């Protein structure tokens, strides 16, 4: 049962430093390990400070009795915190990092010894600065600022009352050595914390880069067709919208082509879905190889592919599409799928008109493509234009050897 004052039952359980911050067991384990490491560094800091105070007492700057009470207070406090971490009791509290306990023990002990021995004021002030670096253990920012706000008030009061008795311990060689040792200890402790957090920052940056890479791959997968390798419907529609915006700004031409593999259902029925997948894959790869970097090829749905051709006029697009149509017919389908297979496609082509929605230009390309289907397939049809049969093939419904075959323009399109 969760204790009533545990972080899980508070209305604001987001901690600056706590096992609930990420909500997973791996993070909680890492948090406990790092907490022990930091607790160990705090204990070592207290031991170092105690040794310095012993040096001050030995040099005559502090009374031994005050030093004894300081040692007893710090020992009892660190023992309590060690027990709280080891038993798991701290994790049932609202302050799982024991920030307040750490700070109250350290600050009260230092201030008490400072009042009992004003001559060690220099070490006391350096210690307080070093302990303030433990602010990341605070449960909230307000906890940190309130703790150290009260501490600064206490420091000001001590300085006001005991100021005349305070002095640097540099009047003797022993005192000079102790002053240097105090600075070395303070700088060393702060340097360790800086190194620790710089390492954490580098790890976070590495994790951020990995996450950014993973998100980029996910974005790519979300816009790519897994089978053909070209853009999926979402990806090609986004590219079309971008091209539309560029046309509206610059007034450049934009063409859209809708390509449909002829008799694809029969291909699936006769050669199976593996054969159909092979056709789709080769079709998509060929389209991607024929277009420019600024163009976009996408699988629009089923056996339909959408080409977005920015900066391209209808006449230029027809040249490209005729080349694509011929390459598709010339692919070695017999080696790829079956000896009897021949693959063709019907293409509907439309040009974007300023101010219209993207659905309109696609709709006209779709209508042109269906007109090509009705006219006999394997051809390119420009919107509002007659379906043009490829070279060497008569229009649909015209027997070979007729005058209409020799002069396709004289043939009536159904």
TrEMBL record:
Record key words, sorted: Membrane, Transmembrane, Transmembrane helix
Protein's UniProt name: diguanylate cyclase
PANTHER family tied to this protein: DIGUANYLATE CYCLASE DGCC-RELATED (PTHR45138:SF24), REGULATORY COMPONENTS OF SENSORY TRANSDUCTION SYSTEM (PTHR45138)
Name of a matching Pfam family: GGDEF
BP terms from Gene Ontology: cell adhesion involved in single-species biofilm formation; negative regulation of bacterial-type flagellum-dependent cell motility
GO molecular function, one term: diguanylate cyclase activity
Superkingdom of origin organism: Bacteria
SUPFAM superfamilies assigned: Nucleotide cyclase
CDD domains for the chain: GGDEF
Region of interest (Disordered), residue spans: 391-414
EC number annotated for this UniProt entry: 2.7.7.65
Chain segments annotated as transmembrane: 40-61, 67-86, 98-114, 144-162, 174-197
Any one annotated GO CC term: plasma membrane
Domain GGDEF: 252-385
């Amino acid at each position: 049962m969760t204790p009533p004052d545990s972080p899980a039952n508070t209305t604001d359980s987001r901690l600056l430093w706590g096992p609930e911050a990420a909500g997973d067991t791996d993070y909680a384990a890492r948090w406990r390990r790092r907490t022990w490491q930091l607790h160990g560094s705090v204990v070592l800091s207290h031991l170092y400070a105690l040794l310095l105070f012993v040096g001050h007492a030995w040099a005559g700057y502090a009374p031994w009795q005050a030093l004894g009470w300081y040692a007893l207070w710090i020992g009892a406090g660190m023992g309590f915190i060690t027990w709280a971490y080891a038993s798991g009791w701290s994790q049932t509290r609202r302050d799982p990092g024991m920030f307040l306990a750490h700070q109250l023990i350290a600050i009260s002990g230092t201030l008490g010894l400072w009042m009992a021995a004003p001559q060690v004021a220099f070490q006391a002030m350096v210690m307080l600065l070093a302990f303030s670096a433990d602010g990341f253990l605070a449960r909230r920012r307000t906890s940190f600022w309130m703790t150290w706000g009260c501490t600064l008030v206490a420091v000001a009061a001590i300085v006001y009352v005991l100021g005349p008795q305070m002095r640097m311990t540099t009047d003797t060689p022993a005192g000079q050595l102790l002053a240097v040792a105090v600075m070395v200890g303070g700088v060393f402790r702060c340097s360790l914390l800086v190194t620790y957090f710089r390492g954490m920052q580098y790890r976070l940056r590495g994790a951020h880069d990995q996450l950014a890479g993973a998100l980029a791959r996910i974005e790519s997968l979300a816009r790519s067709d897994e089978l053909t390798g070209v853009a999926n419907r979402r990806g090609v529609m986004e590219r079309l919208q971008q091209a539309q915006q560029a046309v509206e700004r610059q007034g450049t031409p934009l063409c859209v082509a809708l390509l449909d593999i002829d008799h694809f259902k029969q291909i699936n029925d006769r050669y199976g879905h593996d054969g159909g997948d092979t056709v789709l894959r080769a079709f998509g790869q060929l389209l991607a190889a024929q277009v420019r970097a600024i163009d976009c090829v996408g699988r629009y749905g089923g056996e339909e592919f959408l080409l977005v051709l920015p900066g391209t006029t209808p006449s230029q697009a027809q040249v490209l599409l005729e080349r694509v149509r011929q390459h598709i017919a010339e692919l070695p389908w017999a080696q790829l799928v079956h000896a009897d297979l021949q693959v063709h496609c019907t293409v509907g082509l439309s040009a974007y008109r300023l101010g219209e929605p993207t659905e309109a230009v696609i709709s006209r390309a779709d209508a042109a493509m269906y007109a090509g289907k009705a006219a006999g397939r394997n051809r390119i049809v420009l919107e509002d234009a007659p379906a043009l049969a490829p070279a060497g093939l008569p229009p649909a419904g015209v027997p070979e050897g007729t005058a209409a075959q020799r002069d396709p323009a004289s043939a009536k399109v159904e």
